[in-house]
Write a structure and sequence with these properties.
This protein is of the alpha+beta class. The protein contains 22 helices and 23 strands. The radius of gyration is 34 Å and the shape is globular.
């Protein structure tokens, strides 16, 4: 039986639970690969947990937890791709933490994506080494199995969400029924053939009407207080009858007792044999809600005005103070350059330091007020964060030496990476954190650690961690230190000065980069501040991709997609199947070519037949003719061929590989394995301009 057939049998067996399916899929994998242990893992941060497992002796339990760095799957996370170690002694070497802890000697693993997001891994291992490396077919099977497992997990999530939504809906229906009874929601019905109008007792009580009163449609509309609103209500009601669409309207009425009330009227047309014969509705008294909204709106406007006034005041006062401070500093600098005796120089030096401190306070206030008001533009440019941090070190190293502290800074994890960010703002983060660490530490050490984790294409999560052995912060004070103008106030921390704005500034900058700041501290032990930032890679390939992404503001419909066709140029049969099925799920028909030469011929034929491909997915490494050469041949076919989006679909992920693809004439680069969500985003990004042009042509044929 073929591998795909076995996978289909397992996946299509609706009597199997998800756990059984996963175990059966792993069992197939261990049999095909000749490795005795198979695992499906879930990875969150640095924690690795067992979702499903197959072992010869059941020595590993489901829901067991391990530290991710102690596993080979840490290599999968770092590479964002599969790994294949047929002999650990050869690669990655016996020094790997996983070998030292678990003595595994062969390992094959691939990432599992669920709903386009990284979920964990599927991996197979053995306590013995293999004689030969894993074959491409075995690796392809692993990737197919990873996709299959991801689809099963995604299907399970969808089913669970459906059950949850069903339960929520049932609960809401019950609640609505209770509210209708308890809150006095009134119901009504209008027969369009006889013009008979019936109101519930609750609705009549709501409008102070006698329970036996008979009503006509005009009696109901005459309750509307405003003539213009009455006319609008009647017109919209008639439109609802014509279109068959539900109707919701808020209106002010006068009850039979002359009391003004605000009502929300909801109407639903009943369609029989193509025409509306009846309208049913519900009416709720929203007078209190309407009044509350008015009060809330007024309070919100007051709060916004107060915030604006505060920011404007801080901005103005900061600028006003800055000018004389610069004058003071300038004069002190001139004075210290003259002939002064030792005492005079000491006094002038102290005055200069005080002016510097005052200027820093003013700068903090100005920066905070501007960032808080959204007035400071972030100058996004290519920034070497490691270098930015290291440039701050000498100043603090001197301060540490004066205080007898040990300063350790580690930026190894950031080496070689350039991010798109504001260098000045990132420098402010470290400046404020190190200033605080040095200020509150009398003895011991201050440490700066950095970390960098890839989060999708061209996206990184960067961490900056500053640890000190200072006086620490109480648990209560940790809750307020990131609020503006808030300072710690116990006896040990008094006398250190400052505005209480430094950490607020750091928090604001981190928020701009979709990050945050956190603290862990104990009194008398020290503090650890962790800043997390989401930063974009500043390499050329990512910038090109983001340029395309910025144009993607049109989403094609499945009907529009069905009139197009894609070409998949791929020599691997399993990859052909996977990509073709993914495009099918997106709604885009596709054709296959098994090598670059065949792909070029198909493009030629499509142009001759005046049915060109809308997009081409091109593998890079193929027999007969590779993807780079095929792309160059296609671009040489003429002007129409020059505008067909060609997307590199390959397992290569290095920047040099991306550059080669782009230089050959390709438009974009997407690395394998790729999930449907990521593939869909890529397809829509490149098709959107075509769709927009078509729409524009229809609107303006001239």
């Amino acid at each position: 039986m073929s591998i795909i057939k076995e996978l289909q049998i397992i996946s299509n067996d609706h009597t199997m639970s998800l756990d059984t399916k996963l175990r059966n899929l792993l069992a197939v994998g261990t049999k095909i690969l000749g490795l005795e242990t198979g695992i499906v893992s879930n990875i969150r941060g640095d924690q690795y947990s067992i979702l499903s497992v197959v072992t010869p002796d059941d020595s590993i339990l489901v829901n067991s937890f391990f530290a991710l760095p102690d596993t080979y799957c840490a290599d999968v996370v770092n590479a964002q791709s599969h790994i294949a170690y047929h002999d650990i002694n050869c690669e990655p070497g016996a020094s790997h933490p996983c070998f030292a802890k678990y003595t595994l000697k062969s390992y094959l693993a691939a990432p599992v994506n669920v709903s386009g997001e990284f979920f964990g891994t599927v991996n197979f291992s053995s306590l013995t080494s293999r004689q030969k490396p894993f074959t491409s077919i075995e690796v392809d099977y692993l990737l197919l199995l990873a996709t299959w497992i991801g689809n099963e997990l995604e299907r399970q999530q969808v089913m669970e969400n459906l059950h949850v939504q069903k339960a929520i809906l049932a609960e809401r229906n019950l609640l609505l029924s209770q509210v209708t009874n308890l809150a006095g929601v009134g119901t009504w019905e209008l027969n369009l053939d006889t013009q008979a109008l019936s109101w519930s007792g609750a609705l009549k009580r709501m409008l102070h009407m006698h329970g036996e009163k008979t009503l006509k449609p005009e009696d109901a509309t005459n309750l509307i207080a405003d003539d213009a609103q009455r006319k609008d209500y009647i017109e919209r009601f008639a439109h609802m009858i014509k279109t068959g669409k539900d109707f919701v309207y808020e209106l002010e009425v006068r009850t039979d007792a002359g009391e003004p009330r605000w009502l929300e009227s909801r109407a639903h047309p009943i369609i029989e044999n193509g025409r509306c014969t009846k309208v049913i509705g519900a009416t709720m008294d929203i007078t209190q809600t309407y009044l509350d909204k008015a009060v809330l709106k007024h309070k919100s406007e007051l709060a916004e005005n107060a915030l604006k006034t505060r920011s404007e005041f801080l901005d103005k006062i900061s600028h006003e103070i800055r000018t004389p401070i610069h004058g003071v500093l300038g004069m002190l600098e001139v004075l210290m350059g003259t002939s002064l005796n030792t005492k005079q120089f000491e006094l002038a030096s102290n005055a200069s330091k005080s002016a510097d401190s005052l200027l820093k306070i003013v700068n903090d206030i100005l920066d905070f007020s501007n960032i808080d008001a959204g007035d400071i533009p972030f100058e996004e440019a290519a920034t070497d964060l490691a270098l930015t941090i290291e440039e701050q070190v000498p100043m603090f190293a001197r301060l540490a030496k004066q205080k007898g502290l040990e300063l350790n800074v580690n930026t190894e994890n950031l080496k070689g990476k350039v991010f798109k960010a504001d260098k000045l703002r990132l420098g402010q983060i470290l400046l404020n954190l190190l200033n605080n660490a040095m200020k509150f530490t009398k003895e011991g050490n201050v440490t700066v650690e950095t970390n960098c984790i890839r989060y999708g294409k061209g996206r990184y999560q960067v961490k900056i961690v500053v640890t000190d052995t200072g006086i620490g912060i109480s648990e209560q004070q940790q809750k307020i230190i990131f609020s503006p103008f808030m300072q710690v106030e116990n006896s040990a921390q008094r006398g250190y000065g400052g505005t209480g704005l430094g950490l607020s500034l750091v928090s604001k900058i981190a928020e701009h980069y979709q990050g945050k700041i956190g603290v862990s501290s104990h009194l008398g032990v020290g503090s650890r501040f962790t800043v997390t930032l989401m930063l974009d890679d500043a390499t050329t390939g990512v910038d090109i991709g983001k340029t395309y992404a910025s144009r993607n503001d049109y989403t094609p419909t499945r009907q529009e997609l069905s009139r197009l066709k894609a070409l998949i140029v791929e020599d691997n049969e399993i990859n052909q199947l996977v990509i073709k099925e993914q495009l099918k799920e997106i709604g885009l028909p596709s054709e296959l070519a098994t090598n670059g030469k065949e792909g070029v011929e198909k493009v030629k034929r499509s142009l001759t037949e005046k049915s060109p491909y809308a997009v081409i997915f091109m593998d890079c490494h193929m027999p007969v003719m590779d993807g780079l050469e095929a792309t160059r041949h296609i671009r040489a076919l003429g002007e129409q061929a020059e505008h067909i989006p060609i997307i590199a679909l390959t397992a290569n992920v290095l920047t040099d590989d991306k550059e080669k693809c782009l230089k050959s004439g390709m438009n974009d680069f997407i690395s394998k394995p790729v999930g449907v969500s990521r593939l869909k985003e890529c397809v829509f990004r490149h098709l959107s301009s075509q769709m927009q042009n078509n729409v524009s042509a229809l609107k303006d044929p001239a």
